[in-house]
Structures are given as structure tokens and as C-alpha cells.
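Below is how a single chain appears once it has passed through the pipeline. First comes the sequence as given, then the structure the pipeline wrote out for it. We keep one example in the README because the format questions we get most often are answered faster by looking than by reading.
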Amino acid sequence: MNTDHIENELYKVRSVRACIKSATDMMVSNPLTILRRTWLSTLALSIVTSLSILLSSLLESQQPTTTETSIVNTPLLILSVISLIAYIAIASWWGASVISLLTGRKVKDNIRRILYLILAMLGLYVIMGVCISVGYTLPMFGGKASLGHPTLASPLVAGIILVLALIFILPIGYSSMKYLVEPQQKLMSIVGKPYKTGLRRWGFLFQTALLGGIIICILIAITGVPEMILETAKRANDIGMTMGDNNGLSASFMMLQFFVTILIYFIWYYICCWMNFVYYYAYGSIEAKEKVKKDVVTVSTSNSANNNDFEAQSKHLNLETEKTPDRGLDIEDIQ
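Resulting structure:
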């Protein structure tokens, strides 16, 4: 991939469809290069994700179900913490590999920036989750409602907070891409001036996220059919065992599901890679629009200044003409 050519083609005013088309062309035109430079990090991330899902499901299925107050599952909690740490570390590597395709910088130069961004976004999502939880439980105070029987206001308030949070998080798609592409940008810029620019271009970012999200959902639904079949079979077997039936799955079923899950997530992460390319071109389009806007303002200001100078000169000439007396011809002048 020629990063200089990509950068030269980046800063152009594009529509949402043009951004999606450019991202698709990049994936189709450079499949071997993208695979060669990202396959190892993508495979590692797929393995970690698959292990986290399958081991968590296995531990939950072995947890005895009681009507008493649930006790904290210590092995599951420890596994969740380890999985989260491993996922963040490998996701930083994967994200750095993808961004290096676009910027031409080395992967190791991008890992720290990606890691900071992931932690920042994780913090934002935690804050959003806390706000939604507070909004859900706050209407219950002072009434007879409980967590098991909430009032109608509880999901309504939580839904309003969720919608507002999604509205204000959307511009971060632009500011975070600007932070990753431009090395001089600081982490706080994702909620600084670039965020304000993304907020002004909210409609464009919303259309990009909506159309890209629809395409991703279709692709995930199609490619995820094998995983859905295996998971449905496993759930049906678990339900049968709770009712006293024998285990109807073979000993190799878990291994089969593990490898199928790795393959499915391997494909899904490349779909996410495509979406990163879409946001990359959306960032370039917004930058081009902002540049055009600044150029128009600069030209308008320059023309206004030139007009003011011309009017000032005209007034000065008029004043000089008025000060000069208009004398008639003299006979001596004729002679």
C-alpha cells in the first residue's frame, strides 16, 4: 500500500457513499498487503476473544443454579479481569497495525496512542453506564417500586440518557481518528477543538455510522451463521441436561466450537478494519470541508479589506479635490 498516494487522495470532499466506496476499494485493491501486515494481531485478538467467551460460558454452565442470593463466582471474576487486560493489550496491537496501514508509521509508534485511546473510551463507557444505572434507579426512590418491579419512568429516563450519550459520543469518531492520524494531537483533543468540529459535522458522522453499521450488521449476520448454529445446539443441550437428559454432544464439540469461533471473529475483525477505513475517509472529507470553509472566509476577509482600502482611497481623493480651488483661465496663461 502506497501511504503517500492514500494521503494525497484522503483530503477530498466526499459524500457518505463515496467514503464507503473508497474504503471498500482500499480493502479490495490491497487484500494481500492488509492480510500480511495484520493477520498475526487479528489472529491473536480472535483467540483471546474466543477463549474469553467459551471459558466464561463453560464456567457459567457449571455454576449451580439456586433460588438463594447469588454468590460471586471467583474463578469467573478472575477470568474476566485477565481476559480484559489481555484484550486491551492485544487490541492496542491490532489497532496500531491497522493505523500503520494508513499513516505509514511503525506499529510500535502507534501502540501507545491506541492504548491511551482505548482506556479513555473505556472510561467514557463506564461513566455512561453509571449514568444510565443512576437514571434507571433514581425514579424508584420514594415509591414502592423495586429493581424487580420498576416504574415506567425508570426505563424511560435510562433510555433518554442512553440516547443523549450516543449523540455526544458520536463526534469522537472524528476526533479520535484525527488523534490517531496526526501525531501532534494530544489525547485530550478527542474532547477538545476537534470534538467541536465533529459536533458541527454531526449529521455527516451520523449518516456514516448508520450506513456503515447497517452494512456491518448484514455482514456479521451472514458470516456468523455457523457460530449461531453451534451456540444454539449447545444451549439446547444444556437445557436438556437441566431436565435430566444425557449429554448429547460429542467430546470434540467444544474444540470444534472454539476453532469456528476463532475463524468467525477473525472475519469480523476485518469487517471492523473496513469500518476504520470508512472513518478514515470521513475524517479526510471533514478536514477538506473545513479547509474550504477557511479558504472562503479568508477570501471574503481579503476582498472586504481590499474594498475598504479602495473606499478609503476614493474618499481621500475626493477630499483633495474639494480642497483645490477651481480657478478660471487667466489672460496671461493664454498668452
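The chain has a mean pLDDT of 83.

See the next section for the split statistics.
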